[in-house]
Amino acid sequence: MTSSKTTSGTALQTLIRANFKELLRDSRSLISMSVFFVVTVLVLIALQAMINGGGSTPRLLLTDTVESKITDQLDAANGIETSNEASGDAAAANAELTREGSGAGYTVVISSEDRPDWLRIVEALESAGVPHSEITVVDDEGSPQIDFLRQNLSLALLTGYAAIAFVGTAAPFARMRNEGVMTMLGTTPVRARDILIAHAPPRILMCLVETMIVLAIAFFSGYMHGGSWPRLIVSLLLAFGFIFSIGFLLAARAKNPDLVTQLAGLVPIIVLFGSGTVIPIPYLSDVPWVRYLIPTNWMADAINLDLSGIAPTLPWGLLWALMVLGTVVLFGLSIRLFKWTESDT
Protein backbone atom coordinates (compact mmCIF):
# COMPACT_ATOMS: atom_id res chain seq x y z
CA MET A 1 0.00 0.00 0.00
CA THR A 2 2.79 2.42 0.94
CA SER A 3 4.69 1.58 -2.25
CA SER A 4 1.54 2.25 -4.29
CA LYS A 5 1.01 5.67 -2.67
CA THR A 6 4.69 6.56 -3.19
CA THR A 7 4.51 5.60 -6.87
CA SER A 8 1.34 7.63 -7.33
CA GLY A 9 2.85 10.64 -5.58
CA THR A 10 6.02 10.47 -7.66
CA ALA A 11 4.00 10.18 -10.87
CA LEU A 12 1.90 13.22 -9.88
CA GLN A 13 5.00 15.31 -9.19
CA THR A 14 6.49 14.26 -12.52
CA LEU A 15 3.30 15.21 -14.35
CA ILE A 16 3.15 18.62 -12.62
CA ARG A 17 6.76 19.41 -13.62
CA ALA A 18 6.07 18.25 -17.18
CA ASN A 19 2.99 20.49 -17.37
CA PHE A 20 4.96 23.52 -16.20
CA LYS A 21 7.65 22.93 -18.82
CA GLU A 22 5.15 22.29 -21.59
CA LEU A 23 3.16 25.42 -20.81
CA LEU A 24 6.28 27.60 -20.74
CA ARG A 25 7.32 26.26 -24.15
CA ASP A 26 3.88 26.69 -25.69
CA SER A 27 3.55 30.46 -26.10
CA ARG A 28 0.52 29.99 -28.36
CA SER A 29 -1.45 28.33 -25.56
CA LEU A 30 -0.44 31.05 -23.11
CA ILE A 31 -1.73 33.72 -25.49
CA SER A 32 -4.95 31.78 -26.18
CA MET A 33 -5.67 31.43 -22.46
CA SER A 34 -4.98 35.12 -21.78
CA VAL A 35 -6.68 36.81 -24.73
CA PHE A 36 -10.25 36.27 -23.46
CA PHE A 37 -9.43 37.95 -20.15
CA VAL A 38 -7.48 40.84 -21.66
CA VAL A 39 -10.11 41.60 -24.31
CA THR A 40 -12.96 41.46 -21.76
CA VAL A 41 -11.17 43.87 -19.40
CA LEU A 42 -10.40 46.32 -22.22
CA VAL A 43 -13.98 46.16 -23.52
CA LEU A 44 -15.42 46.81 -20.04
CA ILE A 45 -13.10 49.78 -19.49
CA ALA A 46 -13.97 51.20 -22.91
CA LEU A 47 -17.71 50.79 -22.33
CA GLN A 48 -17.38 52.39 -18.89
CA ALA A 49 -15.69 55.41 -20.48
CA MET A 50 -18.38 55.63 -23.17
CA ILE A 51 -21.36 55.21 -20.83
CA ASN A 52 -20.26 56.99 -17.65
CA GLY A 53 -17.30 59.10 -18.72
CA GLY A 54 -17.18 62.77 -19.55
CA GLY A 55 -19.74 64.03 -17.03
CA SER A 56 -19.72 67.60 -15.77
CA THR A 57 -18.75 68.63 -12.26
CA PRO A 58 -21.45 67.44 -9.82
CA ARG A 59 -23.41 70.34 -8.32
CA LEU A 60 -25.24 68.40 -5.64
CA LEU A 61 -28.38 69.62 -3.89
CA LEU A 62 -28.55 68.17 -0.37
CA THR A 63 -32.11 67.89 0.89
CA ASP A 64 -33.07 68.22 4.56
CA THR A 65 -33.50 64.42 4.82
CA VAL A 66 -29.72 63.84 4.59
CA GLU A 67 -27.91 63.51 7.94
CA SER A 68 -25.34 66.12 8.90
CA LYS A 69 -22.44 63.64 8.98
CA ILE A 70 -23.14 62.71 5.36
CA THR A 71 -23.56 66.37 4.44
CA ASP A 72 -20.20 67.23 6.02
CA GLN A 73 -18.47 64.43 4.13
CA LEU A 74 -19.93 65.55 0.81
CA ASP A 75 -19.05 69.19 1.52
CA ALA A 76 -15.43 68.13 2.00
CA ALA A 77 -15.29 65.85 -1.05
CA ASN A 78 -13.04 66.93 -3.91
CA GLY A 79 -14.71 67.65 -7.23
CA ILE A 80 -18.25 68.05 -5.83
CA GLU A 81 -20.06 71.37 -5.37
CA THR A 82 -22.83 71.18 -2.76
CA SER A 83 -25.80 73.35 -1.89
CA ASN A 84 -28.93 73.04 0.22
CA GLU A 85 -32.56 73.91 -0.29
CA ALA A 86 -32.18 77.23 1.52
CA SER A 87 -29.21 78.46 -0.50
CA GLY A 88 -29.56 80.71 -3.50
CA ASP A 89 -27.64 78.45 -5.88
CA ALA A 90 -29.91 75.41 -5.42
CA ALA A 91 -31.50 76.01 -8.84
CA ALA A 92 -28.12 75.47 -10.53
CA ALA A 93 -27.79 71.92 -9.17
CA ASN A 94 -27.49 69.05 -11.64
CA ALA A 95 -27.96 66.34 -9.01
CA GLU A 96 -30.04 65.89 -5.88
CA LEU A 97 -29.50 63.63 -2.88
CA THR A 98 -32.50 62.50 -0.84
CA ARG A 99 -33.36 59.93 1.78
CA GLU A 100 -36.87 58.68 2.41
CA GLY A 101 -36.39 58.31 6.15
CA SER A 102 -34.27 56.82 8.93
CA GLY A 103 -32.93 53.43 7.91
CA ALA A 104 -33.81 53.95 4.25
CA GLY A 105 -31.33 54.10 1.40
CA TYR A 106 -30.08 57.18 -0.42
CA THR A 107 -31.29 58.22 -3.86
CA VAL A 108 -29.26 60.38 -6.21
CA VAL A 109 -31.30 62.00 -8.99
CA ILE A 110 -29.15 63.42 -11.79
CA SER A 111 -30.04 65.76 -14.62
CA SER A 112 -30.37 64.12 -18.02
CA GLU A 113 -29.52 67.41 -19.77
CA ASP A 114 -26.52 68.55 -17.70
CA ARG A 115 -25.30 65.04 -16.89
CA PRO A 116 -22.86 65.12 -13.94
CA ASP A 117 -20.09 62.69 -13.06
CA TRP A 118 -22.30 60.82 -10.60
CA LEU A 119 -19.61 58.24 -9.84
CA ARG A 120 -17.90 60.90 -7.70
CA ILE A 121 -21.04 61.26 -5.61
CA VAL A 122 -21.31 57.50 -5.08
CA GLU A 123 -17.63 57.29 -4.08
CA ALA A 124 -18.07 60.15 -1.60
CA LEU A 125 -21.13 58.47 -0.06
CA GLU A 126 -19.26 55.19 0.31
CA SER A 127 -16.33 57.04 1.90
CA ALA A 128 -18.84 58.39 4.41
CA GLY A 129 -19.79 54.83 5.35
CA VAL A 130 -22.92 54.33 3.23
CA PRO A 131 -23.00 50.75 1.80
CA HIS A 132 -23.20 50.59 -1.98
CA SER A 133 -26.37 48.51 -1.72
CA GLU A 134 -28.12 51.49 -0.08
CA ILE A 135 -27.30 53.91 -2.92
CA THR A 136 -29.60 54.26 -5.93
CA VAL A 137 -28.83 56.54 -8.86
CA VAL A 138 -31.50 57.52 -11.40
CA ASP A 139 -31.89 60.36 -13.85
CA ASP A 140 -34.74 62.85 -13.73
CA GLU A 141 -36.75 60.58 -16.04
CA GLY A 142 -36.47 57.67 -13.61
CA SER A 143 -33.97 55.56 -15.60
CA PRO A 144 -31.48 53.71 -13.36
CA GLN A 145 -27.80 54.55 -13.82
CA ILE A 146 -25.39 51.61 -13.76
CA ASP A 147 -21.69 51.58 -12.97
CA PHE A 148 -20.91 49.27 -15.88
CA LEU A 149 -17.37 48.37 -14.84
CA ARG A 150 -18.30 47.81 -11.22
CA GLN A 151 -21.23 45.52 -12.01
CA ASN A 152 -19.27 43.42 -14.48
CA LEU A 153 -15.75 43.33 -13.09
CA SER A 154 -16.31 39.78 -11.88
CA LEU A 155 -17.34 38.91 -15.46
CA ALA A 156 -13.80 39.60 -16.65
CA LEU A 157 -12.38 37.39 -13.95
CA LEU A 158 -14.78 34.52 -14.62
CA THR A 159 -14.09 34.82 -18.35
CA GLY A 160 -10.38 34.52 -17.64
CA TYR A 161 -10.89 31.51 -15.38
CA ALA A 162 -13.11 29.84 -17.98
CA ALA A 163 -10.59 30.38 -20.79
CA ILE A 164 -7.85 28.79 -18.71
CA ALA A 165 -10.13 25.91 -17.70
CA PHE A 166 -11.42 25.24 -21.21
CA VAL A 167 -8.69 26.34 -23.64
CA GLY A 168 -5.82 25.58 -21.27
CA THR A 169 -7.13 22.36 -19.71
CA ALA A 170 -9.91 20.64 -21.67
CA ALA A 171 -8.44 21.40 -25.13
CA PRO A 172 -5.00 19.85 -24.36
CA PHE A 173 -6.69 16.67 -23.13
CA ALA A 174 -8.67 16.45 -26.37
CA ARG A 175 -5.48 16.96 -28.35
CA MET A 176 -3.60 14.28 -26.37
CA ARG A 177 -6.51 11.90 -26.89
CA ASN A 178 -6.38 12.48 -30.67
CA GLU A 179 -2.60 12.04 -30.77
CA GLY A 180 -2.63 8.79 -28.78
CA VAL A 181 -0.76 10.24 -25.79
CA MET A 182 -3.62 9.37 -23.46
CA THR A 183 -3.55 5.78 -24.71
CA MET A 184 0.10 5.49 -23.66
CA LEU A 185 -0.56 7.11 -20.29
CA GLY A 186 -3.37 4.63 -19.75
CA THR A 187 -0.78 1.81 -19.66
CA THR A 188 1.11 3.45 -16.78
CA PRO A 189 0.26 3.55 -13.04
CA VAL A 190 -1.04 7.12 -13.48
CA ARG A 191 -4.64 7.50 -12.36
CA ALA A 192 -7.24 9.73 -14.01
CA ARG A 193 -7.43 11.87 -10.88
CA ASP A 194 -3.67 12.45 -10.91
CA ILE A 195 -3.50 13.49 -14.54
CA LEU A 196 -6.38 15.95 -14.04
CA ILE A 197 -4.89 17.46 -10.89
CA ALA A 198 -1.42 17.72 -12.48
CA HIS A 199 -2.76 20.26 -14.97
CA ALA A 200 -3.96 22.61 -12.21
CA PRO A 201 -0.80 24.17 -10.60
CA PRO A 202 0.54 26.13 -13.61
CA ARG A 203 -2.97 27.28 -14.43
CA ILE A 204 -3.57 28.33 -10.83
CA LEU A 205 -0.64 30.73 -11.21
CA MET A 206 -2.23 32.23 -14.32
CA CYS A 207 -5.54 32.64 -12.49
CA LEU A 208 -3.67 34.30 -9.62
CA VAL A 209 -2.17 36.89 -11.98
CA GLU A 210 -5.59 37.68 -13.46
CA THR A 211 -7.09 37.89 -9.98
CA MET A 212 -4.46 40.41 -8.87
CA ILE A 213 -5.17 42.57 -11.94
CA VAL A 214 -8.92 42.62 -11.20
CA LEU A 215 -8.33 43.34 -7.49
CA ALA A 216 -6.06 46.25 -8.43
CA ILE A 217 -8.73 47.70 -10.76
CA ALA A 218 -11.39 47.36 -8.04
CA PHE A 219 -9.15 48.90 -5.37
CA PHE A 220 -8.03 51.92 -7.39
CA SER A 221 -11.59 52.46 -8.67
CA GLY A 222 -12.78 52.78 -5.07
CA TYR A 223 -15.08 49.77 -5.21
CA MET A 224 -13.83 47.85 -2.17
CA HIS A 225 -15.27 49.98 0.65
CA GLY A 226 -16.02 47.83 3.69
CA GLY A 227 -15.51 44.50 1.93
CA SER A 228 -14.35 41.39 3.77
CA TRP A 229 -11.01 40.17 2.41
CA PRO A 230 -11.27 36.65 3.92
CA ARG A 231 -14.77 36.18 2.49
CA LEU A 232 -13.62 37.48 -0.91
CA ILE A 233 -10.68 35.06 -0.96
CA VAL A 234 -12.97 32.13 -0.17
CA SER A 235 -15.43 33.22 -2.89
CA LEU A 236 -12.60 33.44 -5.42
CA LEU A 237 -11.28 30.00 -4.47
CA LEU A 238 -14.73 28.44 -4.73
CA ALA A 239 -15.36 30.10 -8.10
CA PHE A 240 -12.00 28.86 -9.35
CA GLY A 241 -12.76 25.32 -8.14
CA PHE A 242 -16.23 25.32 -9.68
CA ILE A 243 -15.11 26.54 -13.11
CA PHE A 244 -12.19 24.14 -13.20
CA SER A 245 -14.44 21.24 -12.27
CA ILE A 246 -16.41 22.09 -15.43
CA GLY A 247 -13.13 22.18 -17.37
CA PHE A 248 -12.11 18.81 -15.89
CA LEU A 249 -15.45 17.30 -16.89
CA LEU A 250 -14.91 18.48 -20.47
CA ALA A 251 -11.32 17.23 -20.33
CA ALA A 252 -12.54 13.80 -19.27
CA ARG A 253 -14.48 13.27 -22.51
CA ALA A 254 -13.37 15.91 -25.04
CA LYS A 255 -12.15 14.67 -28.44
CA ASN A 256 -12.12 17.88 -30.51
CA PRO A 257 -9.82 20.69 -29.23
CA ASP A 258 -11.25 23.20 -31.73
CA LEU A 259 -14.78 22.59 -30.43
CA VAL A 260 -13.63 23.18 -26.85
CA THR A 261 -12.00 26.48 -27.88
CA GLN A 262 -15.21 27.60 -29.58
CA LEU A 263 -17.16 26.69 -26.44
CA ALA A 264 -14.85 28.92 -24.41
CA GLY A 265 -15.76 31.79 -26.72
CA LEU A 266 -19.42 31.36 -25.85
CA VAL A 267 -18.86 31.74 -22.10
CA PRO A 268 -18.64 35.58 -22.07
CA ILE A 269 -21.83 35.79 -24.14
CA ILE A 270 -23.72 33.47 -21.77
CA VAL A 271 -22.49 35.34 -18.71
CA LEU A 272 -23.18 38.73 -20.33
CA PHE A 273 -26.81 37.98 -21.12
CA GLY A 274 -27.49 36.26 -17.81
CA SER A 275 -25.73 38.59 -15.41
CA GLY A 276 -28.02 41.60 -15.79
CA THR A 277 -25.69 43.56 -18.08
CA VAL A 278 -27.79 43.44 -21.23
CA ILE A 279 -31.03 43.39 -19.21
CA PRO A 280 -30.25 45.53 -16.12
CA ILE A 281 -30.96 43.81 -12.82
CA PRO A 282 -33.70 46.27 -11.72
CA TYR A 283 -35.83 45.13 -14.68
CA LEU A 284 -35.53 41.51 -13.51
CA SER A 285 -36.71 42.25 -9.97
CA ASP A 286 -39.99 40.42 -10.54
CA VAL A 287 -38.21 37.18 -11.47
CA PRO A 288 -34.79 37.31 -9.73
CA TRP A 289 -34.54 33.51 -9.57
CA VAL A 290 -34.14 33.37 -13.36
CA ARG A 291 -30.56 34.68 -13.04
CA TYR A 292 -29.61 31.81 -10.77
CA LEU A 293 -30.46 29.22 -13.41
CA ILE A 294 -27.05 30.16 -14.83
CA PRO A 295 -24.36 28.88 -12.40
CA THR A 296 -21.91 31.63 -13.32
CA ASN A 297 -24.20 34.06 -11.48
CA TRP A 298 -23.62 32.12 -8.25
CA MET A 299 -19.93 32.91 -8.61
CA ALA A 300 -20.35 36.48 -9.85
CA ASP A 301 -22.71 37.48 -7.04
CA ALA A 302 -20.55 35.91 -4.32
CA ILE A 303 -17.46 37.71 -5.67
CA ASN A 304 -19.25 41.04 -6.25
CA LEU A 305 -20.35 41.23 -2.62
CA ASP A 306 -16.80 42.12 -1.52
CA LEU A 307 -15.14 43.02 -4.82
CA SER A 308 -17.69 45.65 -5.84
CA GLY A 309 -19.94 46.06 -2.79
CA ILE A 310 -23.01 44.77 -4.66
CA ALA A 311 -25.27 42.73 -2.37
CA PRO A 312 -26.45 39.40 -3.88
CA THR A 313 -30.10 38.38 -4.07
CA LEU A 314 -29.35 35.04 -2.40
CA PRO A 315 -27.43 34.77 0.91
CA TRP A 316 -23.70 34.43 0.29
CA GLY A 317 -23.59 31.27 2.42
CA LEU A 318 -26.07 29.61 0.07
CA LEU A 319 -24.02 30.71 -2.95
CA TRP A 320 -20.96 29.11 -1.36
CA ALA A 321 -22.88 25.90 -0.72
CA LEU A 322 -24.04 25.74 -4.34
CA MET A 323 -20.47 26.19 -5.58
CA VAL A 324 -19.08 23.54 -3.23
CA LEU A 325 -21.80 21.08 -4.22
CA GLY A 326 -21.27 21.77 -7.91
CA THR A 327 -17.50 21.37 -7.61
CA VAL A 328 -17.72 18.05 -5.78
CA VAL A 329 -20.32 16.60 -8.14
CA LEU A 330 -18.59 17.74 -11.35
CA PHE A 331 -15.11 16.69 -10.26
CA GLY A 332 -16.45 13.30 -9.19
CA LEU A 333 -18.13 12.90 -12.57
CA SER A 334 -14.93 13.88 -14.40
CA ILE A 335 -13.06 11.02 -12.72
CA ARG A 336 -15.93 8.60 -13.19
CA LEU A 337 -16.39 9.42 -16.90
CA PHE A 338 -12.71 9.82 -17.79
CA LYS A 339 -11.74 8.29 -21.15
CA TRP A 340 -8.15 7.30 -21.95
CA THR A 341 -8.90 6.61 -25.60
CA GLU A 342 -11.66 7.53 -28.03
CA SER A 343 -12.87 3.96 -28.04
CA ASP A 344 -13.46 3.84 -24.25
CA THR A 345 -17.12 3.70 -23.15
TrEMBL record:
Give the record's keywords alphabetically. Answer: Membrane, Transmembrane, Transmembrane helix
Query: Per UniProt, what is the membrane topology?
Result: Multi-pass membrane protein
NAD in keyword set:
no
The record, for Pfam families, names: ABC2_membrane
Transmembrane region(s): 30-51, 153-174, 195-220, 232-251, 263-283, 317-338
Q: Which PANTHER family does the record associate with it? A: DOXORUBICIN RESISTANCE ABC TRANSPORTER PERMEASE PROTEIN DRRC-RELATED, TRANSPORT PERMEASE PROTEIN
Q: What is this protein called?
A: ABC-2 type transporter
